Amino acid sequence: MTVKWGLIGASTIARQFVINAIRAQPNSEITAVMSSSPERAAAYAKENGIALAVSTLDALLGSDVDAVYISTTNELHLEQALAAIRAGKHVLCEKPLALTSADAHTMVAAAKAAGLVLGTNHHLRNAGSHRAMREAIAGGRIGKPIAARVFHSVYLPENLQGWRITRPEAGGGVVLDITVHDADTLRFVLGDDPLEVSAFTQAAGMASGGLEDGAMCIWRFKSGVIAQSHEGFTTKFAGTGFEVHGSEGSLIAKDVMTQRPIGSVLLRTAKGEEELSFDREDLYVRALRQFHAAIAGEGQPSATGEDGVWSLTSAEAALQSAKSGKSVAIDPKLRGAG
User: Name one Pfam family in it (predicted).
Assistant: First the structure.
């Protein structure tokens, strides 16, 4: 069966990564794109070789699409995903799934009731580097994990700044944009759930309207692991990285918090240093392959809807902590849901 995709949002991320990833799958095609601007929809469809351009959700969902990829601004995700589910479409949604974890729960429940696949596009789970780290930890190669550090402060390019740094009502700010990824990546690599977070946020000169453009978080996990994550929009020369330190060794990864299959992972133990090899497959191609398999009844998306609820709940707790100046528990109703 050919899976026909509709794009909800004529976005940069779809153009740069997701369109190619969909087209890389056998029996898969993009048949429609929607933008609220008819002119943008038409130009985008022409530029990317998509047959149908529409400017309303009803028109897209009324076409012959089987699945939708949602990459609109964050405040629109809930309504668009629920409409797609009501129309019987599988949904791959950008993170965060919604503006609140309660709304994200609603999306997960709706998809489950309809027997449809809901995936969260947490691309970093698909990186060979992160899967190599997860396997090394699960295989006991660093002993008992003790602590982790994530360096994910970057410089937000001008073409992506817009609503992310000016519109609180659209779900802007670095926490809903990057901390949400780091919470998911820590959870995935450690194979562990966060229970509590303490966070500071800052406005270092890029964001306005009360939004934050930097954050530093301390996480406590179920196993006792403590982790630190630094997220930012304002650091031009920082570089990214991910370290996990255990009783018998350390994993030190560089340049891995990225959309591209690059970077390195070093395992350091009493035996010395070993660079781990890992596949360099395109992260989005792998994500789409997993999603297509889930549609066919084989396994789950790389990141499920439940995973999206976890990461959003974690990010919400970080924002609450930054506001209150206190450590915040991560919603216990979710424990074990992932």
Answer: GFO_IDH_MocA
The sign of the CA dihedral 75, 123, 235, 329 is: positive
Same domain, 252 and 270: yes
Q: Where are the beta strands (DSSP E) in 84-186?
A: 90-93, 118-120, 145-153
Cα-trace Rg, the chain? 20
Residue 334: its pLDDT value, please? 52
Is the pLDDT reported for residue 187 higher than 70? yes
Q: Residue 206 maps to which CATH number? A: 3.30.360.10
Please state whether the predicted TM-score (pTM) of the whole model is above 0.85: yes
Residues above pLDDT 90, as percent of the chain: 91
- By CB atoms closer than 10 A (0-12, 13-18, 19+), residue 126 is buried
The lowest-confidence range among 156-160, 195-199, 230-234 is: 156-160
For residues 21 and 288, is the Cβ–Cβ distance under 8 A?
yes
User: How far apart (Å, rounded) are the C-alpha atoms in residues 110 and 309?
Assistant: 13
Residues 102 and 144 reside in one and the same domain: no
Average pLDDT, the chain: 95
Residues in the chain: 338
Report residue 68: phi and psi, to 5°: -125, 150
3-state secondary structure of 52: strand
The residues pairing with 228 across neighbouring beta strands, listed in sequence order, are: 149, 218
Phi–psi pair at 243, nearest 5 degrees: -120, 140
CA distances from 58 to 49, 53, 87, 268, 305 (A): 22, 12, 9, 54, 23
